[in-house]
Amino acid sequence: MTRLSLAAHDLHIGTGEKLVVMAGMNVLESRDLAMRICEQLKAVCERLDLPYIFKASFDKANRSSITSYRGPGLDEGLRILADVKAELGVPVITDYHTAEQAQLVADVAEIIQVPAFLVRQTDLVVAGAEAVMKTGGWLHVKKAQFLAPWDCKNIVSKIGEVTGPDNPTILCERGASFGYNNLVVDMLSIPAMKALGVPVTIDATHAVQLPGADPRTAGGSTGGRREGVPIIAKSAVAAGADGVFLEFHPDPDKALCDGPSCLPLDGAEALLADLKAIHSIVNA
């Protein structure tokens, strides 16, 4: 299976490598909060000897309501992410939503992300592939809720046609639509996607979402079952996931986006220690 490297950060993902932690906040709320969350998670990962990447979105374009909080936007969001990188010395991952944004985002973020609902947009995927080829970064691709894991071969192939043999793709499992207002995760999807020759991560946070089913807003936002995040994360690592994608907040119930799926920041170390132990057993 492919092993990818970020030379500037001595960071690797794939066969024989440590479990990669992509963790942070759902959407940027403020510069100070981003710094606080990143600083704490970086310290946890340093204690556990796990490679760390800070994640946060500058815009959540897919919202249940037009009044839902979306974030600071492209310009301010990238400024905050650049500050986090400069002050704390960590690589960052964030998503982009249009082909025009791809290079702007890749100039700041070492890993740029294709949102799940947009993975079949060829222009968007190609623009991301071209952008990371110029910067030496990675392209993190969320598997859509409506796609079978093996159908991701077409996405990997599209990217490979742009990049050649040095395909920078990481596929991410984030659940599949199961009836109405629900998602499930088939752990067999992890080895199925790894069979495509790319590293695979698990987005355990978004996998516990209940789309359009937040009882606090009578369906005006997405609900979630945060108690399920550790279960899905542990199961996916046991199934062979190369990395985990997680969201934390000092007070999840006050998070401005997807609070019901977010974990408390003070619980990060215990969970990541468990995930490291499982990964070590699986890869012994």
From TrEMBL:
The keyword Transferase applies. It comes from the Bacteria. It catalyses: D-arabinose 5-phosphate + phosphoenolpyruvate + H2O = 3-deoxy-alpha-D-manno-2-octulosonate-8-phosphate + phosphate. Pathway: Carbohydrate biosynthesis; 3-deoxy-D-manno-octulosonate biosynthesis; 3-deoxy-D-manno-octulosonate from D-ribulose 5-phosphate: step 2/3; Bacterial outer membrane biogenesis; lipopolysaccharide biosynthesis. Its EC number is 2.5.1.55. Keywords: Cytoplasm, Transferase. It is found in: Cytoplasm. InterPro entries: Aldolase_TIM, DAHP1/KDSA, KDO8P_synthase. Residues 10-274 form the DAHP synthetase I/KDSA domain. It is an enzyme of class 2 (transferase). Its main location: cytoplasm. NCBIfam families: KDO8P_synth (TIGR01362), PRK05198.1 (NF003543). Belongs to the KdsA family. This is 3-deoxy-8-phosphooctulonate synthase. The gene is kdsA.
